[in-house]
Amino acid sequence: MGKILITGALGQVGGVLSLALQNQYGLDQVVLSDIHDRGVHGTFELLDITDIERLREIIQKHDISTIYHLAAILSAKGEEDPLWTWDLNMQGLFNVLEVGKEKLIDKIFFPSSIAVFGKQSKLIKSPQSSITDPSTVYGISKVSGEYWCQYYHNKYDVDVRSVRYPGLIGYQTLPGGGTTDYAVDIFHYAIKDNTYECFLNKDARLPMMYLKDAMRATIELMEADKEKIKIRTSYNLASLSFSPEELTLEIQKHKPDFQVTYKPDSRQQIADSWPNDVDDTQAMIDWGWRSEFTLKTMVADMLHNLEIKYSQQTINS
Ligand code: NAD
Ligand code: SER
Fold it and tell me: Residue 312 C-alpha to ligand 2 middle, in angstroms?
C-alpha cells in the first residue's frame, strides 16, 4: 500500500483527520497538503488543488495511493463569490478524479454535505435517495460532485467513496466559513466570555456530528471491502440533531451563567433549506456505520477538552 495524501489538510476537518490517519497508519504514511503552510506535525507539501501537474508530482514523489480530498469552499463563504467557489470545488475534484482515472492512485475520499438538500427535499429524516435542490453554490458543487464521483466509478472504475457530513463539531480546530459554524464558536464563547450572539435562530435545528465520530466514519468507510460500497454518489450520515437553544441548554448544565442572544443573518436562510436530520440506514446496512456520541456526551467532551486547551494557553503565555 502506498501513502495517503490529504488536500486542504489545514482546515477544520483536515486538522483532525491528519492526526487520525497518522495514528492509524503511521506518521510517515501520511502527506499533508494545503494552499498555504502553517507549520504542521508530519510531512507537508504546498498544493493548490487546481494545479493537476503539481498534484501528479506529489503523488509520484511520495508514492501516494489514497487521496482524502478535503479542499473546498464551504456554504456561507461560498456565497460571497459563487463563481470562484464553483471553480475551486469542481476543478479540485476533477483533478483528483482524473489522477484516479489515470490509475496513479487507488482510492479517493470525497466529503459531500447536508447542503445537497433543499426546500423540496424531505427535510425530516431526509432519505438516502431524495430530491436534492441545493440553495447555495456550495450545495450545487457538492451534488454535482457526487454525480461526477459515481460517473468516474462506473465509467473508469475509480474507487471513490463519499459521505454527506452533517455540521461538524470539534475542539481541535476552528470552522472555515460554514452555516453550522455557530455550534463550534458557542463553546469557545462559553469558556472565554460567558455570552454568545448566535447568527442562527434559536430553533434552527440541523444535523450535526462530533468530529470524533466523523473521523471514525471516514476511516471505516475507506477501510470497508469494495463490494460493500453500494452507493457511489454519497452516503447519508446521521448522528446528532439539535437547535441552538437545545445546545445552549446542554452547555448551561455545565456553565449555568452562560447566556446566548440571537441575531440571525443570511446564514439563517441557508439553514432553512437544510434538513433537521437525515436517514443513514443505508450506511448502517452497507458498511456497519453507528454513531456513538449523544448531545450530552459531545457537550461534556467538548467543554472538558477546551478547558484543558485554554488553561494550557494561559500557562504557556
Ligand atoms: P475548511 O474551510 O476549514 O478547510 C478547507 C481547507 O482547504 C483550508 O485549509 C484551505 O486553506 C484549503 N484550500 C482552499 N483552497 C485551496 C486550494 N485551491 N488548494 C488546496 N487547498 C485549498 O473546511 P473543512 O470544514 O475542513 O471542510 C473540509 C471538507 O469537508 C470540505 O470539502 C467540506 O465541504 C467538507 N464538509 C465539511 C463540513 C463541516 O462541518 N466542516 C460539513 C460537510 C462537509
Ligand atoms: N458545515 C458545512 C457548512 O455549514 C456543511 O457542509 O457549510
Answer: 29
Are residues 196 and 135 located together in one domain of the fold?
Answer: no
Q: Is 14 in the pocket of ligand 1 (CB under 6 A)?
A: yes
Query: Does residue 287 fall inside a structural domain?
Result: no
Nearest ligand to the C-alpha atom of residue 163: 1
The tens digit of pLDDT for each residue in 43-66 reads 999 999 999 999 999 999 999 999
Provide the residue range defining the domain that includes 117: 3-169+209-236
Kindly report the pTM of this predicted structure.
Answer: 0.97
Residue 195's CATH number: 3.90.25
Answer whether 92's CB lies under 8 Å from 49's CB: yes
How many angstroms separate the CA atoms of 208 and 185, rounded?
Answer: 14
CA distances from 168 to 165, 184, 206 (A): 7, 8, 11
Shared-domain flag, residues 115 and 158: yes
Ligand 2: does its nearest atom lie under 6 Å from the Cβ of 270? no
Amino acid in position 156: Y
Number of folded domains in the chain? 2
The answer to the question of residue 137 being in a domain is yes
For the stretch 124-168, pLDDT in tens is 999 999 899 999 999 999 999 999 999 999 999 999 999 999 999
Q: How far is CA 224 from the centre of its chain?
A: 19
What is the CA(239)–ligand 1 centre distance, in A? Answer: 21
